[in-house]
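ok so dumb question maybe but i'm new to this and my supervisor (M.) told me to 'just get the structure for Metal-dependent hydrolase' and walked off. so i did the thing. is this what she meant?? sequence i used:
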Amino acid sequence: MANFKTHLSVAAACSGILATGFLEARIATPGEVWLYFAMGTLGGILPDIDANHSIPGRMLFSFFALVMAFLVLFSRTGLYSIAELALLWMGTYLIVRHVIFQLFARFSMHRGVFHSFLAAAFFGCLTTSLSYQVFRLKPLAAWTTGLFVSTGYIVHLLLDELYSVDLTGARVKRSFGTALKLMSHHIRPTSLLVGATLIAFYLTPSAETFVHTVFNFTTYERIKEHMLPTGGWFMFSR
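this is what came out, is it supposed to look like this??
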């Protein structure tokens, strides 16, 4: 499997390229690009959230708790006093970092149900519903945020599978097939995750604008026009 640094670097690179494309296609504003980049990078390390006994796993949950705490804080700015916001931030961080972490540690196993396309769909829908219901993003921005999380998540799974093939020794490692799968073969956790995904999807906003914008080929005509420089490469040939 790829290490934490590789997952973080590749997820950041892919998210940056995709976010830049969305900016050029005018799907995202300059301010939203940073959000999408951050969420795609987070999605790229999210599958290791079930590696709760490792240092990267604990670091990931700490980072995830910080992100959630600040998102909750920003969504309530102007509604509460500074003292109340401080308590809200601290409460969110402690709940995510310790309570939810312990639940994950108890009921999850590494490369289990969370190393699957089903989990990518769950976290994408969960991000979309939270972005819309809690953080009050518009439907297009909420769905795009969820898309970046799912994309980063799948990049992580692909990397783990690629690292399961030893090209130098021309052999396939025993870990091959444990990361990139549709869903886990364990019935109980898979059933729970299917139910959670359906609930998260039910709470998402209408995807009509998102589908019409993101999956419309005319949206990307501007990217095609500006893919390569028209006046020569940079300043050296002008």
